[in-house]
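Bumping my old thread because nobody answered last time. Still need a sequence for this structure:
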């Protein structure tokens, strides 16, 4: 059903990935320019795909196993995005000037946490359904 706790977690992931990266800066370059997700095309597409996968997973509530697999795929995509941010933050130009990392680089971490919580709730629902089927 739509009113489950995993739906709330997935909506939070949609907001985190679909809205916040375009308002929170990812990093600040040496010149002092704030870089947002809209400035980087591939990062922007990755955030949109994360939000889209979370939205699709919400409406797969009747197929819990597919929902679980889609969330795992979303976690993997977030891990790649996080790896890109770590690589990017370690290779920012300007060794003499300190480059500032933005709070937007933590969005994949929060998304992964909420996706894991959603998968836990889905697993709990699946176990409940299996235990009820066993009693029949």
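Sorry it took so long. Here it is:
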């Amino acid at each position: 059903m739509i009113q489950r706790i995993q739906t709330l977690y997935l909506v939070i992931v949609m907001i985190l990935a679909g809205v916040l990266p375009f308002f929170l800066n990812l990093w600040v370059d040496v010149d002092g320019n704030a870089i947002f997700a809209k400035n980087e095309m591939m990062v922007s597409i990755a955030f949109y795909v994360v939000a889209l996968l979370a939205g699709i997973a919400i409406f797969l509530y009747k197929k819990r196993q597919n929902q679980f697999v889609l969330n795992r795929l979303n976690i993997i995509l977030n891990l790649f995005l996080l790896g890109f941010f770590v690589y990017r933050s370690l290779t920012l130009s300007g060794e003499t000037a300190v480059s500032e990392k933005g709070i937007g680089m933590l969005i994949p971490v929060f998304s992964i946490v909420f996706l894991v919580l959603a998968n836990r709730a889905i697993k709990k629902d699946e176990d409940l359904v299996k235990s009820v089927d066993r009693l029949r």
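Residues 5-125 form one domain. Let me know if any region looks off to you.
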